[in-house]
Amino acid sequence: MMKVVSLFSGAGGLDLGFSQAGFRIVYANEHDKDIWATYRLNHPATQLEAGSIVNIPESEIPDCDGIIGGPPCQSWSEGGARRGINDHRGQLFFEFIRVLRAKQPKFFLAENVSGMLAPRHREALENIKQTFTDSGYDVFFKLLNASHYGVSQDRERVIFIGFRKDLGIRYTFPAPFAERRCLRDVIGDLANSARPAHSKSKPNIDLVIPNHEYMTGGFSSIYMSRNRVRAWDEPSFTIQAGGRHAPIHPDAPKMEKLGQDAFRFVPGYEYRRLSVRECARIQGFPDDFVFLYNDVNQGYKMIGNAVAVGFAKVLAESVQMHLTQRD
Fold first, then answer.
1. Cβ(206)–Cβ(195) under 8 Å?
2. Given this model, what pLDDT does residue 90 score?
3. Which residues participate directly in catalysis (predicted)?
4. 73 noted as active-site residue
């Protein structure tokens, strides 16, 4: 069984997908203290190094066959040569590279938001690819939508996959699935059992299904600037990292447009946010994956920042297939 190191692990959606594909996550690192308890509960066989990767020497990270994670790339400069690496926000991406260069595993996978493909980031993107190449890897990257790979959610992400050059692997990204999953497929059985959070965002202890509670409270003008409802026979909007941005449950009709950047809820219907558990289902987390938090918004944040589990599994299986064929 191939051993994998996970960096910037979050709650471990990427890790769970790789585990389901047959990899063993031997080590994980996460700096956010609000996530540690959730990660340890759901990944008991993985050593979690709690704290900033900046303070962890490469010698303390175990040897492995692969490194996975989502290093932030937002501060890479469009001008100059990799100026973002010297920006304090860019140091975390450099840390991923530092560990990769030290450990030289067979492969790596890095994930990031689709916004990095904007024209203003073109030079930064080339810098990132070149840095991976200079680290000894053949690099393959592509913008993929998780909804094409069994996930009931429109979720575009840039995926970087690299194989050590001496392996000579020419990677091909997996083909989209013929069938698409919709909201009814993954949350249809949860429609009538969600409970509101206490005091807008405090956990509700009277839950039959773990985390099946939703944030209450008002909606900002930004939220009301467009429709936030997908129907039962559609995939969800992207699950974002915060309860205030959670999509509306599909039992409600789509919002009415009043004018440019202005929508309203149709009178006479109940509009509620998706629950934490519904968001988790849409992201592919099983019901026995329990999120621990003191504020419901922390649950939404953990889930929204994660890689969709089924999407991660498909990518992991494709990596495994290429490595196996090579052997």
1. yes
2. 54
3. 73
4. yes
